[in-house]
Amino acid sequence: MAGLLQGEVLLPEQLADLMGLEGPLGVAVGALLGAFIVGNIMLAMTGVAGPWAKRKITAAFTDRFAVNRIGPFGLFIIVADSVRLLGKELIIPSNADRPSYDLAPIVLPASALLGFAVIPMGDLGPLNIHLADPEAGLALVFAFASIASIALVMGGYASNNKYSLMGGLRAVAQNIAYEIPLIVTAMSVVIFAGSLQMSTIVAEQGATLVSLGGIDIPAWYAFVNPFAFVLFLVANMAEIGRNPFDIPEAPTEIVAGYQTEYSSVYFVLFYLGEFLHIFLGGAIMATIFLGGPAGPVLPGFVWFVIKIWAFFLFTQWARSALPRVRIDQLIEIGWKGMLVLSFANLVLTAIIVGVIA
Amino acid sequence: MSSDNQQPFVTDRSRVTTDTQDARLTGQDDRFNSRLREAFGSSPFILTKFDKFMNWVRGSSMFMLQFGIACCSIEMMHTYAVKHDLDRFGAGVPRASPRQADVIIIPGTIVSKFAPRMKRVYDQMPEPKFVIGMGSCTISGGPFQEGYNVVKGAEEVIPVDIHIPGCPPRPEALVYGVAKLQERIANGESAPVVVKPYELEQFGDLERDEIVDQLAAEIDTDDLVMRYNWADSP
Amino acid sequence: MSIELPETAGVTEQSPEELEALLDELVIGRDDHLNAPGYVIKPDTVVESLRRLRDDAGFDHLSCVTAQEYDDRYESIYHLKKFDDPTQEVSIVVPADKENPVSQSANAVFRTADWHEREAYDLVGIEYDEHPNLKRILLPDTWQGHPLGQSYDQDQPQVVPLREHKNPLLEDQRAASESETMYLNIGPHHPATHGVLHVKAVLDGEQVVDLEPDIGYLHRCEEQMCQNSTYRYQIMPYPDRWDYISAGLLNEWAYARVAEDMADIEVPEYAQVIRTMGAELCRMAAHFLALGTFALDIYGDFTAIFMYSIRDRERVQNILEDLTGQRLMFNYFRLGGVVWDLPEPREEFIENARDYLEELPTALEEYHDMMTANEILQLRTVDTGVLPPEVAKSYGATGPVARGSGIDYDLRRDDPYGYYDKLDWDVVVEDGCDNYSRLLVRMREVEQSAKIVEQCLDLLEDWPEDERTIQANVPRTIKPKDDTEIYRAVEGAKGELGIYIRADGTEKPARFKIRSPCFSNLQTLPEMSNGEYVPDAIASLGSLDIVLGEVDR
Questions:
Q1: Chain A window 35-94: which residues touch B at a Cβ cutoff of 8 Å?
Q2: Across-strand partners of A357?
């Protein structure tokens, strides 16, 4: 458990050390390099997830094989799909509102990538994959994640398509309704941890909750407060717009929602952005409820990746099995159900922590 | 079919007709042309390799347009779904928006009211795009050929790359057709583009009887649909 | 082993004379059809006559409106039935002037007449007075001539100008002033329309203010095709393509029934059993697809339930393929029977079918777990898309749509044909009137169909070998007498599938009119959706389970 705290030195400084650079310049170069590495890891993961893993997982749920002709297990489809999509004609509708039409697909993945900056991803060999550890880390990651809804409404509005517009507006309504329960639930974790700093939250979960037959169950907040975990899971699903809350896209209702008019590169960026947000959602879940990179035997980073892929698997499972709720029901669940429950959770947590401490 | 068979339905490359390949190289079909090629004017080694790679890419992975018309769309759904699983060939992701699709399967009879709409959907797809005509109706109008309202084949409206006969074709036939299309794309071929205008353009060679004259007076030439011009398409 | 007959005690049956007395001064002649008495009335007394028949004699089901052109006149025929007892029928024949074919609209009495009369205007050219919205329905607005009229020249040029199909996005569509609503085209290419339906929707935010289905994108001239084909063999392949969702045998039966009644052909009992079995297998396949596509509408992309329903369809289709030799377009019925016997070895076929039926309850259990027991699905479907029974009746809704609205109406029991009346099964009725009960009706009908198939298999297995007559002795050409008219319906997968045939003494029908259940069912969509949210309108459309091939024909 102490291994987690050893990584007080963050990735930029480590990189600067490795390159023998010092001072602000070293940190700046190290930060850029670190961001490059983390960003690429995340993009590579979405690259695997989007064209390949998603298909394979869905196929497994529906008794199919999915891609298996090109490459081992059809893995080359990743190359084929991405290159093909990038090589397609980029259509811009004649009355599109530029530049917001062009900005939207960039803002979406960028907002998700920014979020990864403050996530502690554990150590991989000598490196501690953690770019920045500001004191308000948790607040920052939610701030970054919620920029996504701006991208969606920009894209939806700028496309000059009614389906896109509806998708964009749905996205905003949904994000506002679920952002508050999401953050309020996260606050209950902050009460436990006593800090907004990500590394502290992770470190606090390192303690042993209970020892069962020699096996230590760590004090992950998912075990400490399962109720908050479930609330956060639901709100998170809505935040990233997956089933049963995928109404901003709702393929059978409003064609493809906000991305109806997007093709080629812009579509790829949207697609990437969506998957990055799923992974960011998983990363937040892992960090504040599942002990971050903690886990036995394997390096912390591997555990971290396993945890966010588990969340991805969960979203795909929900996608295969759950119907989509209606927009008004979604808002109702958000404002009348989730909000009340999350406040109740917050108050109860505060009381319990206050009494115990 | 065993799933480890990596290359199904491959024909002998040397026996494939090269007409369309030639057409492509001489610039008659610019669906495959890239800006790079235009810039260089000819085909240096690196570009031919690049083209080969792009052809492989386009032939290995395609998003289908979720597009149902008539009877054949039922068999099309079966092809996407369990048992036949078109996704094995990297061609099983139906997209609802034409902007994100590569291949449109035309599964059914096209009638006069629908033809312009289908044309619009086709126009909305980004290049390079491919068309699979599924079933007899897209070849000739099929069993409804003599109907007063039936367009006699999809080729009247949009260019078709592969025709799959049958009424309706079995899912196996559709899988074969898709695999064949993929093979053709990977070989750098595409169907020669033959599009007849679906509606009368300036009333062509029709007898100028009273009705035609009356219609000609009513409608100016800019006002006709289905005048398809490859160069001007968006 | 026989089903309970419906209680017809409450339904008084009127003799033709009583009806004539009821219509009294309105009747100007008789024109009896093979299936029902026909009364000729003047074109300006349509509303009055239909209202009397509906209110005083209980004919509350306007099954079909047929329009046709004779050498000397136009004619509209209103085929009336009773929901309580569809064997009681009456036809109201309305001749109209050849030069100026105008007839009164029945829209004031039966709302279903709206579309039926528009179709009659579109294809035959009769104009209906007092019709709220008389314009073309199946053909483009710019069409010249009425294709089923006698003077129509099929080779004349048809021009559809660009302005009809111009890109609606080309100009800025922002409403000029303080308009509160948004106009939205759903379809004809849209993932939720299950084909090529076009719905013109006016939205207020997410709510539907007004909704108008626009059909005709798959009008394949099925009636003309049948009119150009001979009774004996050429017509039979076409019905397969009306309701193409594997409901082929049910549709073929519609034609087989009407032609057999017309030509007086007795079908051997053995063939009837095979027909019943095949038809019910088709119904199962059709309902599975309805289930799957409904899931598509509610769940999103191609999800597990859709795949499962396709898996079960594949199995039914395999059995049907063994039986008929085709997966989708069976062409298996012949007038007077079926084309061939069960495949050899019989035991294997029967065993295959039994295996399937044995596993069916498990599969259905799975659907119930994943769909009907799912709380989110219930949230989405219960009390949405409500269709009250009176409205359903007025629109002539039939099949699972009517039965989901609590109307106990199933032609297999009420107007028995085939082998149904000797088997033990129930008519499924749910009175929730919403999307959920329509879904439930379909799922429970699958169970009933399985029950029927099981009994048929038992019968077929024990059938003595030398009594297996699969076809009656039918003459090579069939030429019904001139001016024989008949209207007959069967219970298709989507409801009452009726066919009207008028013979003219040749071996081809002079008028072949298809009464499609989906056509009438689709008409109820605005009733179900106005005021609801867009997703509910789409779910309602899914729960209607329309097939555009049958709507547009």
A1: 51, 55, 59, 62-70, 74, 76-77, 79-81, 83-84, 87-91
A2: none
Q: Is B11 on the interface with A (CB under 8 A)?
A: no
Nearest to B90 by CA among C88, A258, A55: A55
CB contact under 8 A, B116 and C289: no
Tell me the shortest Cα–Cα distance from C408 to chain A, in angstroms. 30
Q: Is B90 on the interface with A (CB under 8 A)?
A: yes
Q: Which chains touch C (3 or more CB pairs under 8 A)?
A: A, B
Rounded to two decimals, the ipTM of the complex is 0.84
Residues 204-263 of A with CB under 8 A from B: 251-252, 255-256, 259-263
Cα separation, A212 vs A217, in Å, equals 7
**Side chain identity, residue C379:** L
Q: Considering only CB atoms, which chain B residues are within 8 Å of C545?
A: none
Domain extents in chain B: 18-186, 197-234
Q: Which CATH number fits domain B18-186: 3.40.50.12280, 3.40.50.1110, 3.90.226.10, 2.40.50.140?
A: 3.40.50.12280
List, as one string, the DSSP characters of A160-184.
T-HHHHHHHHHHHHHHHHHHHHHHH
| Total-model pTM | 0.85
- Residues from chain C that touch A166, judged by Cβ atoms under 8 A, are 206, 534
Query: In this predicted structure, what is the pLDDT of residue C499?
Result: 92
Q: Evaluate if residue C274 carries a pLDDT over 70.
A: yes
How many Å apart are CA A280 and CA A49, to the nearest integer? 13
How far, CA to CA in Å, does B181 sit from each of B66, B71, B162, B174? 18, 22, 6, 10
What is the average pLDDT across A340-348? Answer: 89
Choose which CATH entry (2.60.40.1220, 1.10.645.10, 1.10.10.1100, 3.40.630.30) describes domain C222-552.
1.10.645.10
